[in-house]
Amino acid sequence: MRRLKSYVESLPGAETISAEDRYLRFEIKEDGNIDDTEFYFTPNDSIIQFRSARRGDGRDRGANQKRMEKIRIALGFEKIPVLRNRRRALFFLESPLDGWGPSYREDAPRPEDLDQAYGDSDPLAPGWEAPPPYPWRGKEGRNGN
Predict the structure, then answer these.
(1) For a tag on the chain, would you pick the N or C end, based on fewer CB atoms within 10 A?
(2) Which residues contact 37 (CB under 8 A, 6 or more apart)?
(3) What does the pLDDT look like over 83-138, one tens digit per residue?
(4) pTM listed for this prediction
(5) How many domains does the chain have?
(6) Residue 17 CB burial class (10 angstroms; 0-12, 13-18, ≥19)
(7) Is 130 inside a domain boundary?
(8) Is position 69 within any domain?
């Protein structure tokens, strides 16, 4: 978290708005526009969730996406594809009727049932192991080979 905070603060026009246990929020001023950038450090995981958006009506022309990718590469973070259970009510357009899977609290697993709710459906698959400590650098591969 400290590395990410230091790096983002070093970007031109970046200012820290909030820094809490698992959450960072920045304002980045660029070309007269203000971009809100947030990072959330998922508990008991090495995943960092993020969001970056331009305030107002100004188009960013991909500037936020490029900035976030630059941060990811500079800090050596891996890209993880996000798989969603998305259903669109209207074929081409987003609408409030779209579903993002489980949308109701009663559909979500209870905290005490999480270990049974998520996992590999293959009974012969090895159990989950925590990833090796970051950073994965050097000539060795991710698994140290």
Answers:
(1) C
(2) 8, 25, 26, 27, 28, 50, 51, 52, 64, 67, 68
(3) 666 666 666 676 666 666 554 555 566 666 666 655 666 677 777 677 777 665 55
(4) 0.56
(5) 1
(6) exposed
(7) no
(8) yes
